[in-house]
Amino acid sequence: MKVRTFTLRFDPARGAFDDEALHLFMAGVDVISVQQDFFHHESAPWVFLMLTYRPSSSEGRVASVRGPAGRRDSRSDPEIEALDPAQRKVFDAIRKWRSARSKAEGVPVYIVINNKQALAVVREVPVTKARLSELTGLGDVRIDAYGDELLALLAAASTAAA
Fold first, then answer.
1. Contact call for residues 55 and 29 (beta carbons, < 8 A)
2. What is the pLDDT of residue 61?
3. Dist CA 45 CA 118 (whole Å)
């Protein structure tokens, strides 16, 4: 397991954190966990990220595909493509929820929950915070912040599927 840190400044012109270096780094690694801290310096918001990671274990995996805005296109991710239709519906609901949460908090979506963590949630379908805490990368901070909403989303998805 390795550690890498990033300090990202908020770019008011773009209305987002300058996270291109982070995206480039994440394309070649499997992120295990993310710790974050927000702070202000010289009247500007910043985010500090500490990632624990390992080199990507996906031999022969398709290289990261970037969409029109330079962001990774998750539709080309083989793990997402392998989901059955019901799982894909839940995964898409998680992505929609995390997008709304990230906008409300002014943070990148992967701070709320990244695709690997969302895939683990979709596959395992936890029903308690204790079970949610057993999933890689979903530590106490994320579970305290988002656990109830995530479990409610999963419960609603299972009710809709029934």
1. yes
2. 40
3. 27
CATH topology of domain 74-162: DNA polymerase; domain 1 (1.10.150)
* Kind of pairing between the strands at 29-41 and 2-11: unpaired
Q: What is residue 162's predicted lDDT score, i.e. its pLDDT?
A: 61
Residues 6+ apart with CB under 8 A from 125: 154, 158
Domain ranges of the chain: 1-55, 74-162
Residue 28 has pLDDT above 80, yes or no: no
pLDDT tens, position by position, 95-109: 999 989 888 888 888
Q: What are the beta bridge partners of residue 41?
A: 44
For residue 59, the tally of other CB atoms under 10 A from its CB is 5
> Are the C-beta atoms of residues 112 and 135 closer than 8 Å to each other?
no
The stretch 65-86 carries a mean pLDDT of 64
